[in-house]
Design goal:
elongated, 5-stranded mixed sheet, 4-stranded antiparallel sheet, alpha+beta, Adenine-n6-DNA-methyltransferase TaqI, Chain A, domain 2
């Protein structure tokens, strides 16, 4: 691979990641040291995490030994390009999943400089393009392909300055993003507040006065919501037909096509404007399913997304994870949708779900839920008011999302600028990277794995069950200042 940089900064040198990688780390076999504890860096999760302390007998597969300040690169989807720096979290020996590619600490390579380099967009794209496998989460790249990627070696002091500037600017960006996200949370709170006012009659107080509708307020003992006296409490089964979806036989290909949407919980993400689905049904498939007309209200009634609600704009059918309401003629469908998305009704759905690992609200329980129902004309007025409020909220939310997206673009641009040598000035007294590279080569030679001529000796050592000396690795420097675990990506 060639670098995209047209001209390297003064005193920098272009190499590859292979030039700064020692080689394969020694391994620990599972259950071979049952009484020993390890600091385990498992396959990276979606959230930053500290390593897990495990006992030898809990190790279920081969692990590789890693050391403080090693840079770990994830090689498997969906977290390919995730980077982690090993910290001195504990005094236990450190081991890592084989889904990490380790880059051992070398004098002359600042670990954070290498870690940020690996977070660049171009590098992430390269890893994804070189990944292979059966698809999805099993796609992975390999060490030989990663090693071919160019690495731009800067003078060590400049590496430190670059990292310092990156972290200063990223800190500002992150603070700004956190403030934006807090504003988004306030918008969501305002949305739920609007919905609650709508379904307690507060949102249409002015409308009722204009229409000379005089009311008292009443309370429902089941959910303690106070509503106007002109409203009534009705169960779901009284406001419309409740339909639990079903899935036509998947082995019959003629049941599936593009004639009608086949809605699943993941298709309800658009909420008020559900128009499409990932899967579809043919005319024949729809006959084997349960038909849902447009403006039906679909409510997920199982799993982690229980309560997720969609308002469909195209007729179709749903799978069995969804209970749908087809409103009666005297019910305004849009009103039923909004009431299902309000926090009081969402809480009611979760409260009535079975208390198991996989929460389920079956059809019979769903049909018994109480809804506060105003007269039809007031239902329309409530929906008009909600739509006006939500339009303002959604427009502001879109603007905030755009700014957050721009911040992500700025992060990418910041890293690109950093590794083109345009983020901090070059130091006239910095040791050139060419000299630094010579020292790195000498250190790598000392630390590299045993060569072919030493395999007989290595085999004899392995037979004794002691893998400790199979690789001539530099001992951990106990004089290094202890640092907390550092996470990237």
């Amino acid at each position: 691979m060639k670098s995209d940089i047209k001209q390297l900064p003064k005193n920098w040198v272009l190499i590859t990641l292979n030039d700064i990688r020692i080689g394969k780390n020694p391994s620990i076999l599972p259950n071979k040291q049952p009484d020993k504890f390890f600091e385990l860096y498992s396959v990276p999760s979606f959230d930053n995490h500290k390593p897990e302390i495990v006992q030898g007998k809990q190790i279920g597969s081969n692990k590789q030994i890693v050391y403080t300040d090693d840079v770990l690169l994830c090689k498997i989807n969906p977290r390919i390009n995730r980077v982690w720096i090993v910290g001195e979290f504990s005094e236990h020996q450190k081991i890592a999943s084989t889904e990490w590619i380790p880059f051992n600490k070398l004098e002359g390579i600042y670990p954070k400089f290498l870690a940020y380099y690996m977070l660049q967009t171009d590098f992430s794209s390269y890893l994804s393009l070189t990944a292979s496998g059966v698809g999805g989460s099993l796609m992975r790249t390999n060490t030989s392909k990663v090693g071919k990627y160019p690495f731009i070696l800067a003078p060590y002091n400049e590496q430190v300055r670059i990292v310092s500037k990156i972290e200063e600017l990223l800190s500002r960006l992150d603070s700004g993003v956190q403030a934006l996200q807090k504003t988004q949370q306030q918008l969501e709170w305002y949305k739920q507040s609007t919905l609650k006012q709508a379904f307690t009659g507060k949102l249409t107080e002015k409308w009722r006065k204009e229409h000379n509708i005089h009311i008292d307020y009443q309370i429902n003992d089941n959910n303690l919501l106070i509503i106007p006296s002109t409203w009534t409490w009705k169960k779901v089964k009284e406001i419309g037909q409740v339909i639990t979806g079903t899935t036509p036989n998947k082995s019959v290909l003629k049941y599936y096509g593009n004639d009608y949407p086949f809605y699943k919980p993941t298709d309800l993400n658009n909420g008020y404007y559900v128009k499409d689905s990932f899967d579809g049904l043919s005319e024949l498939g729809l006959e084997k399913a349960k038909y849902l007309p447009e403006k039906s209200i679909l409510v997920t009634c199982i799993g982690a997304t229980i309560g997720k609600t969609g308002f469909i704009r195209k007729p179709g059918a749903s799978n069995q994870q969804i209970n749908s309401i087809v409103p009666n003629y005297d019910m305004y469908p849009e009103f039923i949708y909004f009431i299902c998305t309000s926090s009081p009704l969402q809480n009611m759905i979760k409260k009535n779900a079975s208390a198991t690992t996989l929460p389920i609200l079956n059809k019979s329980k769903f049909m018994e839920l109480d809804f506060p129902i105003p007269p039809y004309n007031e239902q329309i007025e409530i929906v008009d008011n909600i739509e006006k409020h939500l339009s303002i909220i959604e427009n502001n939310d879109l603007k905030l999302n755009q700014i957050i997206t721009n911040c992500a673009v700025l992060k990418k641009a910041l890293l690109k600028k950093a590794f083109e040598g345009r983020l901090v000035p070059q130091g006239p007294n910095d040791e050139p990277a060419t000299i630094l590279l010579e020292r790195i080569k000498i250190e790598r030679e000392k630390l590299k794995p045993i060569q072919k001529k030493d395999r007989r000796k290595a085999h004899a050592i392995r037979k004794k069950g002691d893998r400790k000396f199979v690789f001539r690795l530099k001992p951990v420097n106990k004089t290094r200042p202890k640092e907390r675990l550092k996470g990237f990506g």
